[in-house]
Amino acid sequence: AALTELSYAERAAYVMNMFLDEFSLDELRSFAEKAYSSDKFGSRDPAPIVSTKNDIYLELWHGPTCAFKDMALQMLPYLLTASLKKSGQQETALILTATSGDTGKAALEGFRDIPDTKIMVFYPEDGVSQIQKLQMTTQRGHNVSVKGVLGNFDDTQTGVKSIFSSPSIHDEVLKAGCRFSSANSINWGRLLPQIVYYISTYCDMLKSQKVSVGEKLNFCVPTGNFGNILAAYYAMRMGLPVNRLICASNENNILTDFIHTGIYDRNREFHTTISPSMDILISSNLERLLFDINGGNDSQVASFMQMLNSFGKYSVDSEVMEKVNSIFWADFCDDKETAEVIKTTWERDSYLIDPHTAVAAGVKQKYVQQTGDTTKTIIVSTANPYKFCSSVLNALGESFSGEGLELIKQMEKVTHVTAPSSITDLAGLPERFTGAIEKGDMAGAVLQFAKT
Question: Are 117 and 93 in contact (CB under 8 A)?
Fold first, then answer.
């Protein structure tokens, strides 16, 4: 209630200050005011709530790259560069990032031309949308590098983790005057700013008198790597009044199966879907949830991860599952269902959503139908629909020609919804980073970049 009258930046500083003892509240407020400025997020609230006739959406895509990753990756560079100074580190921070579509551009934009940093992004060559690819391959900045990888997101993520854990590569990178860091959600500096928008959302609901103090909310979160919904879990652990966290997956429904059965099994077919940022079978942040729910039993969690690496699966006991199920509910939408939700939401509410948000909206419907729960539910909207023009136009039943940027004007004509300038401005930008490498060549690419 005390946070309700504060701005988003002030709320962010207050929440992060509870975790970051090394920073003063004034420092964090200064960082937050720069990260969430009107220059980056427009004149409106960085994370507005939009109510339609049938649903409530938390829009997290008003930042410079039109995806929720901006909410953390506009803040992380300030936290990281300040940390380098406070710790006296002399080496350049070499940031490695694997992306399923949105993290890459958000990280590149956040760290572009930041002193004493270099950033290298790996993405699955055929696993992102045309607009997502263009956002990365046209990236400006003297300290950036982008590599497409012949494989899926799990391949790129595994490759980056392997590089991080290799002593010999670490030594070579140090000789080149660099030290590794990450912009993926394995970095706490990514997750912490994400906790903020769940708390800020509750403040906004209070301020608009849509809830009373202490009244519980549900959050329905589209997730692949489990980071976004884990941030909601941490907000709940801090005291945010939450009734249920609804985990929404696409056809790569490994998290749905885990939450229902207690068995995490990645020995299954990998699906390339119209919600590509969720095309993931190794959900890194689930490890953090298990650690917390197990009371910090790191040896048990380590055994789960060893089984996953060795056999591709692990299972947890009934006591753990009872705790998981007391907090989480899960389901998924396949591509056909996702497209139907996009179309229905547009026709019924005149509200245009992207395929990832549509997955969450579809799962929210299933949750209400199966549970009868009438608790107010916030659907977390993670990307602007113009990042996925072909999928959205298909869902609306529109015929079109071309791809990528060519579809923007067609979608504007059909929907009368204006495309964001950060996407239309891609037209005419030269592609700096082209071609793709084998996943086995990632380490070599990193060493080459470190030495430049």
Answer: yes
